[in-house]
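Q: Sequence in, structure out?
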Amino acid sequence: GTDQRATARLEYEGRNATVEPPSDSQIPGIEPFVATNAATASSEVRHVSQSASGNPVDCGTYVSRVRALADRGASQQVAAEAAAALRAYPLCPELHYLHAIVSTELGRHQEAVASLRRVIYLDPSLAMAHFMLGSVLSRLGATAAARRTYKNALALCLERPKDEILPLSDNEPTGSLAEAIRNELMRMSEAGEATR
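A: Exactly. Output:
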């Protein structure tokens, strides 16, 4: 009755409320991303924070720019660009995800783990982030944590149609990721049995 309507109204208002994004100092652990190349990042922020017309750039523009650089394989430049973008949009899950991908390619696995955990904190429904976190944890030898993370990713995949394209993926359907996760879990089980 009345309680349900009040709750629904609060949920609606919460979704539509304008929230001022926190500063870097209010987000725990953001420093490794923005401090890695502070001088480069600060010049990159000035470079990418406005479009050619002088208008502010939105998160999607940053994401497109970082993806374009990543497609060209310029890992160091991508890392600096992602750090700059994160300074402007610290609550953008896709920017954290891209930073994690680049960090992994550069062998910065701890940075990748931190970034992927931020993605999952910001949007726990992103199966690709769970899968990527499982992959990085597995590389670091954190088998139990990787297995849990893979299982979370699989559960998210099973909640969606098999042909649905996953957010954060390169047009990968849910069914393909679910199969990859099952294979990874099987590989981990076989490796665990072999070491007994």
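The longest helix spans residues 174-194.
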